[in-house]
DNA sequence: ATGTGC
C-alpha cells in the first residue's frame, strides 16, 4: 500500500473517532472508544505495505474485555504485521490485565526459532552437501524419523518441558534418542527460552499421546510442519556487533542452521479446545463479542485462567522438544557425513506465546520477546537473509520485535493459474530449496514475502533490537 | 498454523 493510501486509512480510522497520530516512525492509534482505552503503536517502515484487514483485526483485539473484569491495556504491531486467519493479525502484541485471550495466541502455540552454529566452513559443507541432502530428505520429508518413547517421558515432557524430558530419557533412551548426546543437551538448556521448561500438565495434551502402557509412536515430533516453517543451512555472512557475536559464539564464514517450527498438532488441539472453553465460559445472558475473541477473566474464574496458561505451557513444552529433535536430526546426520563436528546451540525462542509481564500478561502472536539482553532471531524468507539480534527492551513496543518478513501475497495468490511462476518472478534464482511438493516452493517463494531489510532497519531505529549477525541461506528444507 | 482450501 502506498503512503497516501495508508494515510487515507488512518484518516478513516480518525473519522470513526479513533485518535491517530504519527510519532517517531510509528502510527499511534487510540483504538477503543473510551478515554482509558488502549493505545496501539503500529510500527511501519516508510512506504511500506500494510493490509486494512490487519488494522481492523488489531482494532478488534483492542476492544476485547470481560464484563466481570479484565481488559486490554496496550497493543502494538510489529512491521511484519499481516492479517491472520483466526481474527487476530500476525505481528500483534497485546498486553492484558486481569484476563487472557486464548484466541490471541491461536493454534500455533510456541511457534519459534532455533539457531545453531557449526564448525564447518562453506567449502567443507559443500563437499558433503549431496550426501547430507540425501539423508535429510528422508528424515524431514518422508517421515522416516524415529522418536518412539514411553508414556512416562511424554508425561515428563508435557509437565516439565525439556528438563523433564531429558532426565526421563537419558537413562533409558529409545528411538533416535539413543543417538542423542544428553550431556550436551542438558548443558544447552540455559540457551533455550525459559529453559524450554514451562509449567504444563499432561491432562491438557491429546490423549492419544499418553497411552496407559507401552510405547508412544508420535508422528509430530521432529517434523517441520507447513506454511513458513523450515529447516535451513546458512552461512554467517556478516557480523554487525562483534562483541555480541562473540558472546553468541558465532563467527563470520561459519555454516549455521536455523529451525522455524512449532507445536504441530498438539498446539492445534490445545488452541482449539481453549477457544471453545473461553466461549463456553462467557457469562450467560450477555451478548457475545462480535469479534468472537473470548477472554478468560481472572475475577470471573481464576482457576480457568491458570488452567489455560498451564495448557498453553503444555503445548509450548512440546514445541521446544520438536525444535530440539529437529536439531538433533541435523546433528546426527552431520556426524554421519562430516565426522565429529560440533554444532552448538546459540538460542531457541518462542514467537507465539503468553507470558507474565508487569502486573498482567503479554500475548505475542508472531512477535519475539525482546527484553533487554535477550537474543532475538528473525528469519527472512527462503531466498533472503535471516538475523540474530539482541533485544533492547523497548517499553514503547512492550519488549517485542517482529518474527519475520511478513507475508505480502497469499498462498492462493502465489499458486493460482495465470500467476508468473518463473524462477525470476518468484525470486528463487540461486536458492536451493528441498520440498516434497512443488506448490510449497511457489507458495513460500521469496516474492510471497515482504523485504526483510527495511523491517530490521526500522526496528533498529525504533530502539527495539540491535542486529548481531546476518545469515545468508544455502539450502532450505520445507515440508 | 492445520495433510487444508482459495
TrEMBL record:
GO biological process terms held by the UniProt record: RNA processing; RNA repair
Binding site for Mn(2+) 2: 260, 351
EC number: 6.5.1.-
Cofactor note: Binds 2 manganese ions per subunit.
GO molecular function list: GTP binding; metal ion binding; RNA ligase (ATP) activity; RNA ligase (GTP) activity
Amino-acid positions noted as binding Mn(2+) 1 in the UniProt annotation, renumbered to this chain: 108, 229
Annotated protein name in UniProt: tRNA-splicing ligase RtcB
Amino acid at each position: 500500500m502506498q503512503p497516501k493510501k495508508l494515510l487515507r486509512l488512518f484518516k478513516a480510522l480518525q473519522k470513526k473517532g479513533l485518535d491517530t497520530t504519527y510519532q517517531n516512525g510509528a502510527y499511534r492509534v487510540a483504538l477503543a472508544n473510551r478515554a482509558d482505552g488502549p493505545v496501539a503503536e503500529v510500527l511501519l517502515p516508510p512506504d511500506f505495505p500494510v493490509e486494512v484487514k490487519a488494522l481492523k483485526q488489531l482494532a478488534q483485539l483492542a476492544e476485547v474485555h470481560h464484563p466481570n473484569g479484565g481488559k486490554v491495556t496496550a497493543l502494538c504491531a510489529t512491521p511484519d504485521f499481516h492479517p491472520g486467519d483466526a481474527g487476530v493479525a500476525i505481528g500483534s502484541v497485546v498486553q492484558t490485565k486481569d484476563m487472557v485471550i486464548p484466541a490471541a495466541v491461536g493454534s500455533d502455540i510456541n511457534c519459534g526459532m532455533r539457531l545453531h552454529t557449526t564448525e564447518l566452513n562453506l567449502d567443507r559443507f559443500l563437499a558433503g552437501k549431496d550426501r547430507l541432502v540425501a539423508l535429510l530428505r528422508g528424515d524431514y520429508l518422508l517421515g522416516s524419523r524415529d522418536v518412539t518413547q514411553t508414556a512416562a517421558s511424554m508425561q515428563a515432557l508435557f509437565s516439565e518441558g525439556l528438563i523433564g524430558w531429558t532426565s526421563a530419557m537419558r537413562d533409558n533412551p529409545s528411538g533416535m534418542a539413543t543417538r542423542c548426546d544428553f550431556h550436551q543437551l542438558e548443558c544447552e538448556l540455559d540457551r533455550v527460552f525459559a529453559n524450554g521448561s514451562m509449567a504444563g500438565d499432561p491432562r491438557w495434551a491429546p490423549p492419544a499421546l499418553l497411552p496407559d502402557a507401552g510405547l508412544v509412536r508420535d508422528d509430530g515430533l521432529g517434523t517441520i510442519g507447513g506454511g513458513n516453517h523450515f529447516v535451513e543451512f546458512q552461512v554467517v555472512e556478516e557480523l554487525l556487533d562483534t562483541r555480541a557475536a562473540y558472546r553468541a559464539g558465532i563467527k563470520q564464514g561459519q555454516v549455521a542452521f536455523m529451525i522455524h517450527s512449532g507445536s504441530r498438532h498438539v498446539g492445534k488441539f490445545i488452541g482449539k479446545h481453549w477457544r471453545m472453553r473461553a466461549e463456553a465460559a462467557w457469562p450467560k445472558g450477555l451478548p457475545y463479542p462480535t469479534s468472537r475473541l473470548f477472554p478468560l477473566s481472572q475475577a470471573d474464574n481464576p482457576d480457568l485462567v491458570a488452567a489455560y496458561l498451564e495448557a498453553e505451557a503444555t503445548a509450548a513444552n512440546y514445541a521446544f522438544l520438536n525444535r530440539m529433535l529437529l536439531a538433533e536430526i541435523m546433528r546426527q546426520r552431520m556426524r554421519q557425513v562430516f565426522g565429529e563436528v560440533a554444532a552448538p546451540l546459540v538460542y531457541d525462542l518462542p514467537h507465539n506465546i503468553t507470558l507474565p509481564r508487569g502486573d498482567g500478561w503479554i500475548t505475542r502472536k508472531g512477535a519475539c520477546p525482546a527484553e533487554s539482553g535477550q537474543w532475538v532471531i528473525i528469519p527472512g524468507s527462503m531466498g533472503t537473509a535471516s538475523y540474530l539480534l539482541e533485544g533492547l527492551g523497548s517499553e514503547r513496543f512492550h519488549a517485542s520485535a517482529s518474527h519475520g518478513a511478513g507475508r505480502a501475497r497469499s498462498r492462493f495468490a502465489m499458486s493460482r493459474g495465470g500467476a508468473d511462476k518463473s524462477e525470476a518472478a518468484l525470486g528463487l534464482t540461486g536458492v536451493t530449496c528441498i520440498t516434497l511438493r512443488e506448490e510449497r516452493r511457489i507458495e513460500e517463494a521469496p516474492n510471497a514475502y515482504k523485504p526483510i531489510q527495511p523491517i530490521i532497519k526500522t526496528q533498529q531505529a525504533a530502539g527495539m533490537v540491535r542486529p548481531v549477525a546476518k545469515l545468508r541461506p544455502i539450502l532450505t528444507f520445507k515440508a
